[in-house]
Amino acid sequence: MNFKAGVTLLFLCGLVIFHIEDCNACDLIATVGDSLNIPLKFMSLSQNDEIKWTHDNKLIFKRAKTKIIKGNRESVNEKGDFIIQSAEETHAGTYIFQVYNSDGTSKASGTVTLCVHEMLPKPVVNITCDKGKVVVKCDVQNTKDQIFIWYHNGVKTSENEQIYIRDVKNNDKLECEVEKPIKSHRSDAVPVLVKCTSESTLANKTLFGFDFRIMVGILATGGFLVLVLMIVLVTCACQSCKRQAKRLADEDELRLNFHTPPKRSTHTARGQPAPPVPQEDPEVSNYEVDDPPPKAQSRAKNQQRIRPPPPSVDDDESPPPLPQPRKKAPNTKKNQGPLYMQP
User: Fold this and answer.
1) How far apart are CA 203 and CA 284, in angstroms?
2) Measured on CA atoms in the order 4, 8, 10, 11, is the torsion positive or negative?
3) Cα–Cα distance between 119 and 236 in angstroms, integer?
4) What is the largest distance, in Å, between two alpha-carbon atoms of the chain?
5) Is 238 helix (H, G, I), strand (E, B) or coil?
6) DSSP secondary structure letter of residue 166
7) What does the DSSP assignment read for 69-100?
8) Are 120 and 133 in contact (CB under 8 A)?
9) Quick one: pLDDT at residue 83?
10) Sequence-distant (≥ 6) Cβ neighbours of residue 208 within 8 angstroms
11) Which residues make Cβ contacts (< 8 Å) with residue 46, sequence separation at least 6?
């Protein structure tokens, strides 16, 4: 039992050590196209010392005193650092340096692991709304094990998550970049121009001491009813004006017809000329309506009534015949018998 427990413990320790070594496998990290120096990590270097640099167990530079045996003079500086002008993926690997005295005695040695990665694409800042809050997000192609760096109005912040959780105001400018495993270019500055309104925010508002949405509904309904009432009143007023104008026109027409006398025919039903219209006495017409007319003079009792003249007889029209008295024939057959008895 103790043996199995010991084996298990050693296996777990090996995994932990492997993980730690894997996390710290790169001493230097560079992107394609970067220029960098791989440090020698030895301070007391003299011109008479011999320097060797190997890359993945392959000799890439050797200098004995001032003589270059392998490589170019520009590949190593005065401090003994190995210089890479433009990094490529083939430059990644393990670099080993060795320093010897003039008599061949080793003075220092060391190992440096270089990792070269492709440059990450420039991230993009996206600003959206979620439940009434402004959400600022840094979008990249690969978000696994990334460290984000945020800049608020050009000032670096302590935020290292993909979503910016601090409060922002209108017209604030935000930028982001990715740092792990390599540093990316900084994104373009994006101003905050989004105004978010949530239902919960409206629900918490009040108007005249009541719920905001209920009061808005009541005011909208009341305004609609007032508008309908105004339309009805204006329509009724227009109809009343039209009816009043029509009534006045009818009264004027009736008054005109009442004061205009009807036109008399010049002939009677028998074709005879109509008698003249009697004219009013001007003395009677001059009196006012309230004053009684003067009394007519009584005619003489014995005055004989004058008969109107007979109508004129036209030449073409014959006068009607005068009635004649009935003539009785003599009753000569009063004493005679029946006709069948007569001879």
Assistant:
1) 92
2) positive
3) 80
4) 216
5) helix
6) S
7) EES-GGGB-TT--EEESS--GGG-EEEEEEEE
8) no
9) 93
10) 215
11) none
pLDDT attached to residue 270: 64
Per-run averaged pLDDT (10 residues), the chain, 343 residues: 45 39 69 88 83 93 88 88 92 93 87 87 85 84 80 88 84 85 77 66 67 84 91 92 88 77 63 64 48 50 57 55 65 52 52
Query: In the numeric block, which tokens belong to residue 242?
Result: 């039209």
CA distance 214 to 203: 10
d(CA 338, CA 163): 152
Q: How far does CA 259 lie from the centroid of its chain?
A: 70
User: CA angle 142-148-152, nearest 5°?
Assistant: 135
Whether residue 28 contacts residue 115, with contact meaning beta carbons closer than 8 Å, is answered with yes
Cα–Cα distance for residue pair 197/195, rounded to 1 Å: 7
Cα 155 from Cα 186, distance rounded (Å): 13
CB 40 within 8 A of CB 80: yes
Q: Which two tokens stand for residue 189?
A: 């500055």
Contacts 24+ apart (CB under 8 A), 251-258: none
As beta bridge partners, residue 135 has 128
- Name the token pair of 256: 């005109």
Q: Determine the pLDDT at residue 185.
A: 75
Structure tokens of 195? 């105004």
At residue 100, what is the residue type? Y
Angle (nearest 5°) at CA 35 between 183 and 119: 35
How far is it, in rounded angstroms, from Cα 120 to Cα 148? 13
